[in-house]
Amino acid sequence: MLYDAAHALARQIEQSDESREYKRWKAIIDQSDTSAALIKEYHRLQVTLQMAAAAHTQLPQEEVQRFSQLSSLLFAGSETSAFLMAELRLQQAMADVFRIITEASGLTMDLPGGQ
Question: Which among 52, 71, 95, 108 would be 20 to 30 A from 41, CA to CA?
Answer without folding.
Answer: 95
